Task: structure prediction
Amino acid sequence: MVEVSIVIPARNESGNILPLLDGIDAACTGKADYEVIVVDDCSTDGMGDLVRARMAGHPNLRLIRHDVSGGQSAGVHSGVLAAKGGVVCTLDGDGQNPPEELPKLFLPLLAEGSDAIGLVAGQRVGRQDTMSKKLASRLANALRSWALNDKTRDTGCGLKGFRREAFLRLPFFNHMHRYLPALFARDGWQVAHVDVSHRPRGEGRSNYNNLQRGFVGAVDLIGVMWLLRRRKVSRPTEAGQG
Result:
């Protein structure tokens, strides 16, 4: 039985995907029954073919392909829908999220007495990015934290672990992956945080720039603030016969 599904949303990461998959196997073998789901967001560099070739010797590896590029949140959502595990972990396909950090995400959710925890969010330390990217991220995180009070210093980290059914109850929207702590807390779940390391990007280049992130982030932040204010506050309890 699959306990943990590891979802990798990726686009044009042919130079990074195979070392990443090797690292996942090295980090997770013997720690949980797991599967790996690569969600190919319309790659044009042959990444999907590399994953398909690897699947012959790795029965726990799966490939999902988008017919239209949908971005990171769409990739995560497609992977979670397909997942067989009750716990899902995500990490980016560019190799910047070290796979050896994955047990920090799923072991707390598999532990006895952890039923109240819905999300374990990775928090990057020692970020290996350009100064402009780090400054833009710091500003965005400060603004989001002030507006949502989500008690999370780094929501942009791709390393996250969460309960599948709880995630699927969240309202889906593009870029929702950056607001998971606030959305899980909105539904009454506890959110745990763990420090994780960070690496320089391997091959290729990022699919997004700071201007794109800033523009969509401002619109999304307003939408998430609205969602938090409109959350359901009543909780139903079924009564037995009197």
